[in-house]
Amino acid sequence: MKAIKYIIIVFIVAFIAYNSVYFKKLDEVKASLSQKEFNAPLYAAAFWNNKLIPNLDKAIDLTKLKTMLSSDPAKTFDVYSHALGIGNLRYFLIRGKGSIESVNENDVTVMLNVDSSKQTVTLATEYIFGNAVRDASGLININEFTNTMDFNNVSAEINKIIREKVLPSFKQSVKKGDVVEFTGAIELNKEHLDLSHVEVVPVQIGMSNEK
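^ that's the sequence the OP posted. Answer follows.
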């Protein structure tokens, strides 16, 4: 009887141990770890340095864009805008040049260099948020992300780069009458298009020697 009991105990222990241990493929383990360890600041910095900045030369001139939007908005949205979701909000990567008309608490008003008419645009300098810069270039693939939190955190980190690295020196030195060249992102509503007030989230801002 003792021998039978011993055999039964050994069998039970072996059964429990067998069902308590399992194996996974190394690729599955690495994939699981990479999902848990997503580094939004690192991803945003790599996107900024390796994708966004090298492609700023593809930005469309803002005055040209506004003209095209006035004459053929549907085609212009199709050709030049980007969005990573379904809806009317679309994003454009733009560039422009003009003189500072006013320096305000939260933004700067720029008079664009347009011969035929006065056109102004606002450069955001304080409240940098949203997905405009992340989405405007069309260089991020949403399928790279396993959840919306990581995706949204990338936007937050890109906006942080703008607040901490792009804007401080500009805000300290800018004054009325300065001529600036800028590249950035804008958000427009395809269904309710309003070109009377365009706000640019700047990616690059440079002072020009031209007066």
